[in-house]
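ENTRY TYPE: protein
CONTENTS: sequence, structure tokens:
***
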Amino acid sequence: MTDKEKGKEKMENTTRMKMSFLALAAFAAAACPAEALFNGRDLSGWLSVADNDATGGYSAAEPTWTVVDGAIRSTGTPFGYLRTKRADFSDFKMKVEYRWWRKTAKPNSGVFVRLAAETGTFIPRCYENQLAPESACSIFALGGSVIEGVAPRSPYDPANALSGIAAVPAKAPSAEKPFGEWNLLEIEVKGDEIVSRLNGTEMNRVKGVKTPKGAIALQSEGGAIEFRTVEITESADRRR
């Protein structure tokens, strides 16, 4: 190999190294580090919203939300939700573990994303990842939210919390674990798309989401449920 050829090879190797470095830097900038939204000790950073007109058999002797053995526990009553104080989550990947800790007549709960506004009821304006048994990872647009191309069941009426729901059923057979075992829910929200995975299985993929950002919330709706490992990884341009 001539000196000229050696010089050319050296320049090519240097160029490749620079391109690799730039690619790694771009990858590192594409996402922020994972952040725990729940510290495992208390409900710092969260706000409880309760609809006392939808009690589901509420007993004041038993608080709706507590922290037990490193998990957020809900009795499921009264209906409402526990939401993050921060309300500008946009594009992210989220991991939540959940399990049913006590049997109830109609176990129901969910995880809300892009919660944009309170409505004065137990259903805010948001997108719900359903957790009710046999319906887990169905995705609902609630409180006047819109999924383009999915017609609501009825026109939205602010006086009726259950009106205007646009529903996209889960697209795969149930991947839920038996009662009392922990399930891993993974939610990816990017642009106008929401993807839900349960215990490693993709259950749903919905396009046409219109609300650009909002809070994250855990639902109280009749089911005695626990949540743990509430973790989020945001995209670098999360505060657009």
Remarks:
- Residues 3-29 form the longest helix (27 residues).
- The CA atoms of residues 51 and 122 lie 5 Å apart.
- The two ends are 53 Å apart (CA to CA).
- Residues 20-29 have pLDDT under 50 and may be disordered.
